[in-house]
Amino acid sequence: MHQMTRVAAAAAAATIAAASAAWAQQPPTVRVRGTIEAVDGQNLTIKTREGADVKAKLADNAMIVAVVKASYSDIKQGSFIGVTGMPQADGSQRCMEIHIFPEAMRGTGEGHRPWDLRPQSTMTNATVDQLVTAVGSDHTVTLKYKDGEKKIVVGPECPIVTYAPADKSELKPGAKIFINAATKNEDGTLAVPRINVGRDAPPPM
What we know:
Blueprint: H1 2-24, E1 30-40, E2 43-48, E3 53-69, E4 80-87, E5 93-100, E6 111-114, E7 122-133, E8 139-145, E9 148-154, E10 160-165, E11 176-184, E12 190-198
Parallel strand pairs: 3-12, 5-9, 5-10
Antiparallel strand pairs: 1-2, 1-11, 2-3, 3-10, 4-5, 4-7, 6-7, 7-8, 8-9, 11-12
């Protein structure tokens, strides 16, 4: 019996070690912000915001999502939204952009983390707990997520968008795109499982 227990324990340890090694070997993901320059089937040539040319290949089942202009009035108590912000001295975040998630995407990336839109910027994906219209042009939104909450100051300069289904016809030269999690193929191209494309607003995130 003890021998069987030791064998089972050793097998479990080996399984955990193998899973940990596989996790450690997961390729890092990269974000791409830019403009489509050319389309050839599943292959895209993109001019990034930094000025580089990159080659990207859409997965056969890639999700293509349109970025659609929205407004502050579209944000309701209980909405699940994502906010890119800049930390302020009082602990609040000054809004740089807001994306309103459709209900089917509620919970996506919930929490607060660093972001790379600008140095020191952050991303908060959370549920709207309170909306306050301040005197003047700024609004205040309180967001709550599993481990805490953030106060967001929303000025009139903050772009607000939402998402809608899209297809490959919207991936054309001149289209503004955002790819959140591409991985590098052996040939140096980027493998793309999902791409956001601006329909009537460029992806601001």
